[in-house]
Amino acid sequence: QNNLNERVILPYNKDELYDLSFNINELLQRIENAIERKRQFTSDASHELRTPLSTLKGTLEVLIRKPREQSEYEEKIKYSLSEIDRMTDTIEQLLLLARLDVNSRTVDRSPVPLPNIIDEILSGQKKQILQKKLTIAFQKGVLLEEMVPQYYTQLIMENIIGNAVKYSKVASTLHIEITRSGPNVICNIQDEGVGIKKEDLDNVFKRFFRSDALHHKNIPGNGLGLSIAKKAADAINAEIHVESEFGEGTTFTILF
Ligand code: ADP
C-alpha cells in the first residue's frame, strides 16, 4: 500500500543486521534439520510397513499356488492375521505420534490422581503379569491425591509400564513408587528385566529404535512406545530419565 518509489529505511544498524542474518541462518538450519528428520521418519515408517507386507504377500502366494492341507491353511492364515494386527498397531501409533507432533489442544488434560492411572494400567496388563508370574510392589505412600493431566500421563505410563512388564524376567518383581520432591511428583518404575546396553541408552527414545540384543529374544515391539511417551511428557513439561544395568534391570523415572 506504500508508495513503491519511497525509500525504505530499515530500523537496524550494521551490527543488528548481522545478528538478524545470523538468526535467519540458524532458523533455516533448524528448518532443514526438521525436514531431514521428517524425511528419515517417512522412510523408516515405510520400511517398517513394507517388510511385513511383503512377508504377508509371500505367505498368501504360497497358499494359492496349489491345494494344501486344512491345517496348513489355518496356520498360515493365523500368522497372516497376527501380522495384520501388528501393522495396524504400528499405523495407530504412527497416527498418534503425528497427532502429538501438532500438539492437539483438544485432548483431555483434566487432572486425575496418578495412583488411579497406574492401577488402571496394571489391571489392563493383568494377563501378561500373571503369565510372567510377576510380583507388583506398588508404593503409593500417602500421596493418593497427587494429580496429573490424564491423557498425557496415561500415554507415558502405559508405554513405560507396558515395557517394564514386557522386558521383565519371569517370576521377578516390578517396583513402582510415587514420591514428592518440592513441587515435583516423581514416579519410579523399576524392573528386573533384560536391561539396556550402555551404548543403547541414548537411543531408546528415538522412533523405531529397538535394541539388537532383543531381536534374539523374540520380544515383540516396533520401537515407537518410548518416543510416544517422550512426546507426551514434552506436552506437559514432564521429564523421563532412564538408568539400566544390562542383564539386571531398568529404572525409568518420570518427573511431573
Ligand atoms: P518397543 O518396546 O516396541 O521395542 P519402545 O520405544 O517402547 O519400543 O522401546 C525402545 C527400546 O528400548 C526397546 O526395543 C528396548 O530395546 C528398550 N527398552 C525399553 N524399555 C525397556 C525396559 N524396561 N527394559 C529393557 N529394555 C527396554
From TrEMBL:
Compartment annotation: Membrane
Molecular function per GO: phosphorelay sensor kinase activity
Residues annotated as domain HAMP: 1-36
Keywords: Kinase, Membrane, Phosphoprotein, Transferase, Transmembrane, Transmembrane helix, Two-component regulatory system
Residues covered by the Histidine kinase domain: 44-256
EC number(s) reported in the record: 2.7.13.3
Catalytic activity: ATP + protein L-histidine = ADP + protein N-phospho-L-histidine
Enzyme class: transferase
GO cellular component: plasma membrane
Protein name: histidine kinase
The species this protein was found in: Maribacter luteus
Whole-protein residues included: 202 to 457 of 457
